[in-house]
UniProtKB/TrEMBL annotation:
Belongs to the HesB/IscA family. NCBIfam families: iron-sulfur cluster assembly accessory protein (TIGR00049). This is HesB/IscA family protein. It comes from Flavobacterium chuncheonense. Residues 2-105 form the Core domain. InterPro entries: ATAP, ATAP_core_dom, Fe-S_cluster_asmbl/transfer, FeS_cluster_insertion_CS, HesB-like_dom_sf. The lineage of its organism: Bacteria, Pseudomonadati, Bacteroidota, Flavobacteriia, Flavobacteriales. PANTHER family: IRON-SULFUR CLUSTER ASSEMBLY 1 HOMOLOG, MITOCHONDRIAL (PTHR10072:SF41), IRON-SULFUR CLUSTER ASSEMBLY PROTEIN (PTHR10072). PROSITE patterns: HESB.
Length: 109
């Protein structure tokens, strides 16, 4: 399962509305791809469709779609949002990552 913090949930719902998506019906697609300074990087986007290879979760009023292959790397992750003057934006707290880069956008196992 992937969890969503309260602050991340509020920001996601707000951003979905700005981009013409509906948090009650549409999804946040979370994924992993090769690349980044640590070997793997996170992907985050909005989606109206789910595929046959997707795992679907709902947490804190956010519907999440994750391709099964990416889920192996993301199980137990908490999506958070860090705002403010020094905020980074969305942050992945991934218990599977052995090493992360300084920006938090890539990781290795």
């Amino acid at each position: 399962m992937i969890k969503v913090s309260d602050t991340a949930s509020k920001k996601i719902v707000e951003m979905m509305q700005e981009d013409g998506f509906n948090a009650a019906n549409d999804y946040v697609r979370v994924g992993v791809k090769s690349g980044g300074c640590s070997g793997l990087s996170y992907e985050l986007k909005f989606d109206k469709e789910v595929g046959e290879n997707d795992k679907i979760f709902e947490d804190n009023n956010v519907r999440i779609a994750v391709e099964k292959k990416s889920f192996l790397y993301l199980a137990g992750t908490v999506l958070e949002f860090s705002g403010g003057l020094n905020g980074k934006g969305f942050v992945f707290n991934n218990p599977n990552a052995n090493r992360t880069c300084g920006c938090g956008e890539s990781f290795s196992l």
